[in-house]
Fold this sequence. Notes:
It comes from Thalassovita litoralis. One of its GO terms (molecular function) is DNA-binding transcription factor activity. The protein is α+β, with helices and mostly antiparallel strands and 114 residues long. It has helices spanning 7-14, 17-26, 33-37, 44-56, 78-86, 96-107; strands at residues 31-32, 60-65, 68-73. The protein has a three-stranded antiparallel β-sheet with strand order 1-3-2. Strand 2 (60-65) and strand 3 form a beta hairpin. The longest helix has 13 residues, at 44-56. The mean pLDDT is 84.
Amino acid sequence: MTPAVDLDTIFAALADPTRRAILSMLLEDDMAVTDVAEPFEMSLAAISKHLTILANAGLISQDKRGRVKWCKLEPDALREASIWMQSFGQFEAVNLDAFERFLQSELDIAPTQD
């Protein structure tokens, strides 16, 4: 996590259900922005705003491959939040497989098919 990214930024990014759903989708593999947008009933511009918030929080990275912009999950970005939660002694380290199952159950999202 870059020094400019703090816990408030990470938790604010995670507070939105659309952004959590996007993270869940990216657990499987990198995705083109248009593929990320497909299951949502909102404009590509609105999805792009969500992706920008996730990128600013360090939760995803984006790069351009040819004419297509791709999104990639940055799972280490959750490490700082996990460490903070552990300091309360009530939480275990974030297990990304368990996190994915949690997101899928909370958002009622079917696992992505390749």
